[in-house]
Amino acid sequence: MGGLDCSKLHLLSKKSQQERCVVLNHSKINRHSADSVNRQFPKNVAVSSHYTWWNFLVLDIFEQMHSVSNFFFTMISIIFFFGETPISPATVVAPLIVVMSVQIIKDGYDDLGRHLNDKKINDTPFLVWVHKDRGFEVESSWDSVKARNIRCGDLILCREGESFPCDTLLLASSNHDGKVAVTTGNLDGESSVKTRFTLPATQKPFEVLLKEFNSPGTLGSLLGDVNFPSVAHIVCQNPTDDFGTFEGRLEYATANTEGNGTDNQHSIPLTIENIGLRGATLRTSGVICVAIYTGKDTKLSLNAKCGQKKTSSTKHRFNSILLIFILAMLILTLIFVGIEYGWQNQVSGSGWYLVYGQLTAWKVTQGAFDEAILMNYLIPISMIVIMEIVQFFLALYAVNDITFYDEHLGKHCQVNATNIAEELGQVEFLFSDKTGTLTENKMEFRCFALAEENHAYSLEEDGLYKISGKPKQYSNEGVPMGVKEFVDVTFESSEDENEADSFAKQASRHWQRGTERVTEHSEEAELFWKVATLCHSVEVKASSEAEEQKGDNMNYSAASPDELALVRAAAKCGFVYLGRESTTDEWTDLGRETVRVSTLSGAAGGDGRKLLHFYRGGTLEFDSTRRRMSVLVQSAQDGRCFVFSKGAETAILNQRVSSGSPPRIHDNVTRQVNDFASRGLRTLVFAAREVSASLYRTMVDELKRAQGLTGQERIKALEKISAKIESRLSLVGVSGVEDRLQPGVKRCLRSLITAGIQVWVLTGDKEETATKISQTAGLFSRQMTLLRLTQYENVESVARAISDHLKLIQMTPELVLDQAGGNPAPPGSVTTCSTEGETSVSLTRVTRTQCAARWLEKLRSWFQQAWTTGHRKGHQQRNGTRTIGLVIDGQTLRYATSDILRRNFLKLCLEASTVLCCRLTPFQKAAVVKLVAEGTKDVIGLKAPVTAAVGDGGNDVAMLLQANVGIGIFGNEGRQAVRAADYAFPLFKHLQRLFLVHGQWNYYRMSFMALLFYHKCIALVAAQIYQLSFSGFSAQPLFDSLLYALYNLTMTSCSICAFGLFERHLSEADLLRHPFLYRLMSQNANYSPWYVVLWCLDGLWLGSVCYFISYFVLVGGGVYAEAIFVLTGTSYATLDIDLFGTAVFLYLTIAVNFRLFVITRTFTLALIIGNIAFGVGNFIVTYVYQRMTSPISIFYMNLSYLAHCPAFWLAMPLSLTLGLLPDLLWRLGSDYWWKQQISRGSDRGRKSKAARTLLRGSPTLNLTEL
């Protein structure tokens, strides 16, 4: 038998940058060639660990040196050994070692777990078809091989319950029809069983290997080798991380039976349905597969690579403040060194008792080192590790929040990133997907219309009904327009939202029930249902073969809920899809699949049944570019060949695609699409074309040839054949599918908008459907003016529309409203939700103000640049009351985001409270998030805003990764979004509590923790600076070395940690009842320069009070005698400088801890017990140390001596009172301010409620939007 030259093919594949060639190692004859060719591919070793045993310590320390604080304190530790300070290096080295050791232990523990898991995976045994030399003979048999030793091209036998060891091509299944059942929970989180298929050309030849496994030796005795060409190879694309795609082909040659000396070349296209991915679990008894991607090339490994690590905006601000503190420390060091050596040249600094030695450059450098060692305590060494600990617990709070649990789904909150907890309280922009995020993604087929008819059909529980006459428009609550209903008004409290949400019934009805029941399908209706039944990727799971034959109780599964709804609706109307059917006739040799359809003849629901068989020649899958799906089918009864297509109306109504229908039909279908979309239904347009048998075969062959290519060549070939297949189609009809809102969405969205968060909806749906759903969800209120940027075809027209909209908004006080009835709004129009049906509102400028307007615009821009902060804050505060919405489609968005229009487009977006972007691709979703994050900084100024994105599907992953906070929803489209997100929740409504409660608490805790760290460090350094002024700035320490270390490690940090874990500045009820409180701390308000300076001044005040009270009360202030203490055996004992320093330290430590109790608003038992425990523990440590230390130590018995000093005890309440007096006054003012804010919010809420009560009395209000 002839074969292909594998070595030449290998060389060709190496030249290609987009393909790889894997040779099947199934034959004894070709085993050496297969080994040599496949050796270039990586070993099948799973590696998820970050380190090895020999580089762990070096790499981990190197990574920790990227932290500003760690690097800084490492440098300080080094200069300790070059200075002459009496402070022990352990005061910095020991805390640094502790902080870094905690991180090293954590990283080591995590990586050890990854190593053990990798070893378990790599050592798992699998049965591999191996060839062993036995003298002059070669034996082939199944042998147990560890997963790490599997190479590309090896044949593997997987049994039920096992996971595929690598990415494999399925060759043969224990099921004779070639079906392979797998679960992909480890890949995408889906628990449902999916069906994969072996190749018809390899099922029978390799099926014999299953017999060899069941009865060893039968293969050798009966056949001697696999009955398949000895030379076969797989040409496929280079490894990619996309779980949903695979490009490749199986090539081999067979002998020509005609005897002309040439071999028959075979090329079988491969798809993802023929691939068993590593991590997927087999649910079929056995399958033979061949390894094509191993080790790091598998899709699972490529997806496991860590993406860019997100850091919170507050951390960036914290690092900036930290750098400022370091700069201040260096400046103070230089100043004090200059003063020190300047003072030594003064008369006061040249006493007989002062011996300086010769002044050299090194001496000056050592002095600088000594000063830097004292000033380094300005930087809190323990802050990073303490804040990471608190962030971890804040994530646990969200995970264990019972309100995030959904009983129906059985899911609760999942946190994948613990380092951005405080970012939840700073969100300014929320980008949300629509389908499956705002809605349930549980599609229900509601109605359809045929292309040549003017009426529609509604599908009810009891049958199919015809809707005669002009459809009657229905509102969101299922009542006809004109009947009184509630009105959207900005909510200031959750009680108002509850009231409004009760009116927004989830079981909304957007269509009317027909009165004439359909008892017989027309020919056009039968064609519609045939397209719906055959053009899809739904799988059938019948409970038994008898039920499958009968067509009852069919169990369908599909990746797309829309397709599932269509197939189920077809079954209700008598067209039951029975699934694929194995066959041995000629169609199998042609590579076609068989599909069975059962139709109820005559009346829907009647007893007449017949089986229709169709051969599916090929499928053009749906993609985000074409936005349609097509299948090539041929009837087994009469041999007629068809092209069936369905897709978005923009894709099907394209003149090239549907040129088979006249303009009249096009107009009718367009009207039907708009009618369904205006009712909030998702629409699909169906088309068909009958082709000749010869053209059909040509199309099938060209399609399969294109599907067997890879890379750009494949893309171009598919574009060419799809243009040929999807052309000259005739329109068949339109379907309308309902996707209901999730419960609580309206309340959640209105709360977020009131909180100052600008909500953007990014969806691929058509404009009318997306707008209607946005209205139902409460994003677009009845009194909101909608600005439209849709259906533009060039940059100039988009620029003109954006400019007009901006001018209209700026001239709002000088506008005249002219109302006129009309048709739906044209591109770029301004519309409003009015009170009189469909009314267009045009805005006319008063011409006498044109000149003044230009000057006002210039003045406004000047003031905007001079006061960017106020504008940013005002924009966020207006979001809750703004009545402007913006609608833009994907085509216009491409022009609006160009370099010349980006700035003005963002200005327009920021003037709106809600932006709706429809007809977007997944790439455009991520681009919009990036545009706002990066572009807003240029438009408004200051730092980039904090963005959050929420989605439920794989098409939302890029958007989630781009946003500062990515939030996944446990939806019906897999778990890709959940795995890529930072947070995941069962329902969209949980975002309200996540942002308003957890977000506010997290940000308040983390920001105040940082401020408390700055405060306590400044207080300590302030006391040290005062001491320097009394010692000639000679870098003499005020405290013992141990006290310097304990002050930052345990004496003050533990209480701050307890504050971060348990503090709640406002109650949960207040935060939910008054969403506007969220925006009061937005844009890092607690890190604003004036607020940080205020805390620094407070720390300076506290340090000054503690030092000078000790100075004047305990040591006399240079005027009076020092205080005395009782010492056994001594009649008169006075305080010296060592006791003075210890007293200052104790006053500082006690005051800093009491400072926490002053600002704490929530006292819990854990907080009180924790602080007491840490206080007692620190006292025991220091007390034992002062008794056990050397008698020559400056800290020897200091605590005991001070305890016997009356002046020390009398000065303590004085230092606490004076030191904390500003904090007490600030706390009183803060409490009053918060109460005023809540009181004002309650007043606004009562007025809003009264207004809604009044408006509900009007019978003319509705939710219509043009």
What brief labels describe this structure?
Calcium-transporting ATPase, transmembrane domain, 18% strand, Calcium-transporting ATPase, cytoplasmic transduction domain A, 1266 residues, 45% helix, disordered C terminus, 40 strands, Calcium-transporting ATPase, cytoplasmic domain N, 40 helices, alpha+beta
Brief summary:
Among the domains are: 20-34 and 37-44 and 150-216 and 224-256 and 264-303, Calcium-transporting ATPase, cytoplasmic transduction domain A; 311-347 and 360-399 and 996-1243, Calcium-transporting ATPase, transmembrane domain (Up-down Bundle); 523-541 and 555-741, Calcium-transporting ATPase, cytoplasmic domain N (3-Layer(aba) Sandwich), CATH 3.40.1110.10. The protein is built from 40 helices and 40 strands.
